[in-house]
Design goal:
Number of strands: 0
Shape: elongated
Structural class: mainly alpha
Distance between the termini: 38 Å
Bound molecules: MU-OXO-diiron
Oligomer: single chain
Largest sheet: none
Helix content: over 70%
Number of helices: 5
Strand content: under 5%
CATH class: Mainly Alpha
CATH superfamily: Ferritin, core subunit, four-helix bundle
Order of helices and strands: HHHHH
Radius of gyration: 17 Å
Length: 165
């Protein structure tokens, strides 16, 4: 059985993951509006991953005999001054999520909930990848600077995400 504090925080994390999906979907819409279809694709794939993350928490709460309670999701930002600004926001957001996961892990340890602790390990590893993916794109966009050729090349590369595996 889940203790109440852990259950509340896991429910909050469902909201955080769904809010992440919403943020990335808004970024996908922004990239669509700029005709950067590859970046829009990357963000769509990211949105799906975030929904999958939310569902992992959803299933875990049920498996432990807990109660899922959903809450409001705030409206995301809808516009950015550049592709770089959007990916920088994505990176900052992932740092925020990593902080949440670390906090959850600390709580699970404090409450001596080994099952929650082991469940959260997957997310610790996942966050390393999430941050690394965003960082790599931010760094490439910085290198590209004002080169439209470079931007179009990266757009094409990001269009392959989710299609080659
Ligand atoms: Fe679910 Fe991007 O962290």
């Amino acid at each position: 059985m889940l203790n109440k504090r852990i259950q509340d925080e896991l429910n909050k994390q469902i909201n955080e993951e769904l809010a992440s999906a919403y943020i990335y979907l808004s970024m996908a819409a922004y990239f669509e509006s700029k005709n950067l279809k590859g970046m829009a694709n990357w963000m769509r794939v990211q949105t799906k991953e975030e929904r999958d993350h939310a569902m992992k928490f959803f299933e875990f709460i049920h498996e432990r005999g807990g109660r899922v309670q959903l809450a409001d999701i705030s409206a995301p930002k809808t516009d950015w001054k550049s592709p770089l600004a959007a990916f920088e926001d994505a990176h900052k957001h992932e740092i925020h999520i990593t902080g949440r996961i670390n906090g959850l892990l600390e709580l699970a340890r404090k409450e001596k909930d080994s099952a929650a602790e082991i469940f959260l390990h997957w997310f610790v590893t996942e966050q390393v990848e999430e941050e690394a993916n965003a960082t790599e794109i931010v760094e490439k966009l910085k290198m590209i600077g004002d080169s439209s050729g470079g931007l179009l090349y990266l757009d094409k590369e990001l269009g392959k995400r989710g299609k080659k595996d």
